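Recap quiz, item 2
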Amino acid sequence: MIDKSVPTLKEAVADLFDGAAIMIGGFGEAGVPAELIDAVVDHGAGDLTIISNNAGTGDVGIAALIKANKVRKIVASYPRMAGSIYFEERYRAGELELELVPQGNMACRIQAAGSGLGAVFTPTGYGTMLAEGKETREIDGKHYVLEYPIHADFALIKAYKSDRWGNLTYRKAARNFGPIMAMAGKKTIVQVEEIDPLGTIDPEVVVTPGIFVDRVVCVPHKTKAAA
Amino acid sequence: MQRMSSDALAARVAKDIPEGAYVNLGIGLPTRIANYLEAGGDYFLHSENGILGMGPTPPDEEIDWDLINAGKQPVTLLAGGCFFHHGDSFSMMRGGHIDICVLGAYQVSEKGDLANWHTGAPDAIPAVGGAMDLAIGAKQVFVMMNLLSKSGESKLVKECTYPLTGLACVSRVYSDLAVFDLGPDGARVTEMVEGVTLDKLRELTGLDLKLAD
């Protein structure tokens, strides 16, 4: 019998290692696997490359990883937000490398990694400073920039429901980067609000097929006030 | 010379958005346009974090932090709305499926180059988000802005001096003083608010502006 569920957050992230590249889902606070990130902090692995749309705010989530000095590099589209104090502090001190990527290029580079593509030609960023030094090509009269896949050793994402095979559904706009990061991570670790018996999730509503998922851990929903 | 208020400008842009259009309204002022789309009409508002059919801000007791817009503010979903992941969301833009995108700007060149993500200040921490994807992806990209910066400089320029977001991507600028169509031949004035003249606009922008045919 195959059961991808693990009982604790600690076991879910047990094989992280120093220097790992980790994708973390979420846009703003929606879809951020906050408890899994806490488990990464507790695990203690450092020198990490974090691939995520934002760089966290306050001192929770990715901000907590930065605060704990566990992050060497961030790949993000919008790292600077109100309250991203630790990111700003470490970035200004030259202690944190930033690769700034347009959001759609981040998405297609993650998809390229998950889909086994060697690279993509994307029109986004052509002629801007974010394409400086990159190979370009004119195809049918339009200009494109060559962008390479973003690979990761781990993808940490938040979904809504799972079964023991790792089939996933999501909740509203918390889906965002989850499905494409699940495909790109060498090991994909998912926190879900519910783990349901096999066969009870309607196959027509499965968004991420279990083939892309390695481990699931149940973290029951907390209301915002309680969180 | 009477400048249009932000709300009047939002209402003016809304007049050019036809029912049935798939529209992305950029963070900030452009989001106000939603207030002026014809009530009861079917407009498809896209949010790059994976929403089509986005509705207005909910009352406090209905806020759901899994349902936010690109500016990370709580929103609602209209009947018929749907969710999708980031790959699909940016394919909607890059693939030319979004009809109209309305963005703010630091500068727009008369040929339609856009600068709206970075002031170029050496100590600024850069953040681009979806700005570059929106700029080049939609079938039509409109800019909504005041013609002059706070320090009185024209934001419609010969060549952008701020870092670019996209090349030749803006087709029209709606400003508080006039509406401009942009293209390879430069900017053409299609409308002016009462009391504004072509000469006045030429003086303010320093551009060899022409009236539209």
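Chain B touches chain A through 39 residues (CB under 8 Å).
The mean pLDDT of chain B is 96.
End of item.
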